[in-house]
Specification:
Elements lengths: L1 H18 L11 H4 L12 H8 L4 H22 L5 H22 L7 H33 L7 H15 L3 H42 L1 H54 L5 H49 L1
Helix pairs in contact: 4-5, 4-6, 5-6, 6-7, 6-8, 7-8, 9-10
């Protein structure tokens, strides 16, 4: 029964709405909205927008902009090689800031100056070329150092190379170039010094060899004569040396005696020396004197024997002369 009543009501409403289009059931589109046309939103057009639309940049500004873009390509090339690019990127950033300021001045009708942008772009280009050049030179320098003989002192060369490489990584290419040149200069000095030593050694060897070859008979004769002289004079030389040793230790003994007297004087008379120090010094002096007294008779005996040998040679020489 309820369903029948609900159906009748809906049917009645549909018939009534067909005669009155202003009535809209839930979910339907209002009648007036079917023919409603939306008006376009009002656009806020200002003088600045108009100036932006009609502004035409000058050829100078276009060239400056292209210079900046070309510089960015060079930076990308450096990045592809693994080089640091902080220095050149700072230059590009300054060029872009200058470009924006000069372009704004140009839009206002002023006289812009893009020359600084060209300078920055040229500097970027030069740094890019220099970075590739230094990279190649570092590789060549490393190879040159490695080819040097291991007997040479390469410490300074390696230090200069490491400094140059660090300067390259820090984008101080000019300083890196100076260090590379210095390393090559040091290398040339090391090689020249080595060649000089080899030349001197070769010359000295040849000179000595030539001298020995040209004077070998004189040299042999001189050696024989010196040997004979030494053989006959050996006892005289030995006696001379023994007497010098004997005189030396006797002089040392006299000095020790003087030191003993001085020590005794400071201890007994002046009372300036502690008893312990006094006994230590006296024992030390006594040991030294005993050692000297032990050496004296040995040297005197050696001198006596040497004198006997000299007298024996003289007696033989006299006997030979008497027989003749």
């Amino acid at each position: 029964m309820k369903k029948l009543i609900l159906t009748v009501l809906i049917f009645t409403a549909l018939i009534f709405s067909s005669f009155n289009p202003t009535i809209c059931l839930p979910g339907c589109i209002p009648y007036e909205d079917l023919f409603k046309v939306e008006e376009p939103a009002e656009q806020n057009i200002t003088n600045e927008t108009i100036e932006e639309l009609i502004f035409e940049p000058s050829e100078d500004s276009i060239r400056a902009y292209q210079k900046i873009e070309d510089s960015k390509i060079l930076v990308d090339q450096m990045k592809a090689q693994g080089f640091n690019t902080e220095r050149v990127q700072d230059l590009i950033l300054m060029a872009e800031q200058t470009y924006e300021a000069q372009l704004a001045l140009e839009k206002l009708g002023g006289r812009p100056d893009y020359s600084n942008i060209y300078l920055k772009a040229t500097e970027v280009s030069n740094l890019r070329s220099l970075s590739f050049q230094i990279s190649d030179e570092l590789i060549n320098l490393r190879n040159e150092i490695n080819t040097l003989d291991d007997s040479l002192n390469k410490t300074q060369l390696n230090e200069n190379f490491n400094l140059a490489r660090q300067e390259f990584y820090d984008e101080r290419y000019e300083k890196a170039q100076e260090l590379i040149d210095k390393t090559y200069n040091d290398m040339s000095h090391i090689i020249a010094g080595e060649n000089l030593l080899l030349a001197l050694y070769d010359a000295a060897t040849k000179t000595i060899g030539n001298f020995l070859d040209q004077n070998k008979y004189y040299i042999v004769s001189g050696i024989i004569i010196l040997s004979v002289v030494f053989y006959f004079l050996r006892n005289y030389l030995k006696r001379y040396w023994l007497k010098r040793q004997l005189n030396k230790i006797k002089l040392e003994k006299e000095v020790l005696k003087q030191l003993i007297k001085k020590t005794q004087n400071e201890y007994f008379e002046n009372k300036k020396m502690p008893e312990t120090v006094f006994h230590i010094r006296m024992n030390k002096f006594a040991d030294l004197i005993r050692d000297i007294d032990r050496q004296v008779p040995i040297l005197e005996e050696e001198i006596f024997k040497t004198n006997e040998k000299i007298k024996g040679h003289k007696f033989k020489d006299e006997s030979k002369s008497n027989k003749k």
